[in-house]
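Can anyone check this?
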Amino acid sequence: MILKRIFKPREKPERRLYEAIVAAARHENFYQDMAIPDTIEGRFEMIVLHMYLVLGRLKGEGVEDLRQNLTDEFFADMDGSLREFGVSDVAVGKKVRKLAESYYGRVIAYDKALNSDGRALEEALRRNIYPDDAPIAATKAMADYVVFAVKALNELPREQVMGGRFSFQ
């Protein structure tokens, strides 16, 4: 019994944080009220958006190792998910590379949009999250959510964010 406690693998902080991000991204309001497609792609987009929000909050906080480990955790999860879907070992690397390009493209787009006006954010969200024409109200609600989430995260202590103890709803 004691040996189990001694040799029990420690939970990695980035894993706990990533699980909180995934939980936030899976909230039913996105799929019911904001017209996010409840598809693999729609869920990927929501995870990417929440990764962006949390990594943005932790930027400049002296936790670059955690930020990098969190990003690595995200890509490891994407790799594992692709393998679960039956993607061959040969193709996984190419698909993960494409996901990485998508991820970093969205990070750049969201950064630029948040430092611009509200219409730029709506346009970035429309282009990245909604595969077809989304209702204007849904895109506007999503943009309002992003602005709210940035503010809510910025008001939380760093340790609370790092521990994955946050909620956007």
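Reply from J.R.: I decoded it. Residues 12-162 form one domain.
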